[in-house]
Amino acid sequence: MALLEVKNLEVSFGLRSGAVKALRNISFSLERGERLGLVGESGAGKSVLGFSILNLISKPGRISGGEIWFDGKNLADLSAKELRDVRGNRISMIFQDPMMTLNPVLTIGQQMIECLKAHRKISTEDARTIAIQKLKQVYIPSPETRIDQYPHELSGGMRQRIVIAIGLLMDPDIIIADEPTTALDVTIQAEIMELMVELCDRNNVALILITHDLGVVSQVTQKAIVMYAGRIIEQGPTKEIINDAQHPYTQGLMNALPQMAIPGQRLNQIRGAMPPLQRIPVGCAFNPRCDYVMDLCTKQLPGYTASGNCKVACHMVADMKRKAEQSTDEV
């Protein structure tokens, strides 16, 4: 049995014009110690999916359908008290901006100790000892000194390491990292991602990495999910998706990487923009931006087609597979 299994998840937001679905028919699984990447442009639904796993969707949003099974329990059915035992304890979340996560008027130590005492019956002295140990794990220099400093006294990379240390405080089974390196420069980004992989491997912690960068996903994760307009359009082993992307949208994301462009020329980009939730096109949501659009794409939502070890929601892929099977039968 998988550590985390999401089945047909739907998340809706109630607006004056009527309810809109931010997530539609989301299904995937995550094993203990496995690293999964959620990829897509802004507005694809990646962060909403991360928040919904912990039922952190703010009103007027709500989980309107599906199941989220974690270690034998459906998180969508748990009470607020039962969810508090899971959040931060068994499943931790690392947010984009550490300065928004950390309290500026409390020292690092006060925040870490408070977190530990909220979940465990432990003395302040023991909590401080554990906090220092976690700071050492994320390679914070002079942790005995840093623990008594305030967030503004630390660099951006140091603050992000602190946030990771707080995420590791309770020895969680899963860490959900929402764009954890957005505010950092390139060299620090690489260090933080290497650190997260090392910590997950060492502690057998599963990781859900939310990002828009397929380059990062290719280096860090074992499985990948590509999202568009609130739906999974391709998922499977990361190497297979990177080396042989099937969906036109995934191909567009790959071609948009800087290393895919010819030096001195403009970077490649996908034309158009992500549709708003209120105006998702009929059929395949990507059809207004797709170079391979067919008549069927504008009328019917594509189902999932198996391609190697991947699943792809694309009429073109399904048509190509059908023709390949017919030619094989004729031979």
UniProtKB/TrEMBL annotation:
Keyword set, alphabetical order: ATP-binding, Cell membrane, Membrane, Nucleotide-binding, Transport
Q: What Gene3D superfamilies does this protein map onto?
A: P-loop containing nucleotide triphosphate hydrolases
Tell me its EC number(s), please: 7.4.2.9
The source's domain of life comes to Bacteria
Chief place of localization = membrane
SUPFAM superfamilies found in the cross-reference section: P-loop containing nucleoside triphosphate hydrolases
Its membrane topology, per UniProt?
A: Peripheral membrane protein
User: Coiled-coil annotation: which residues?
Assistant: none
Name of the top EC class for this enzyme: translocase
Q: Where is the ABC transporter domain?
A: 4-254
Q: Which GO terms of the cellular component aspect does the record hold?
A: plasma membrane
* GO terms of molecular function: ATP binding; ATP hydrolysis activity
**Record SMART domains:** AAA (SM00382)
Hey, which family's this protein in? Belongs to the ABC transporter superfamily.
Q: What is this protein called?
A: ABC-type dipeptide transporter
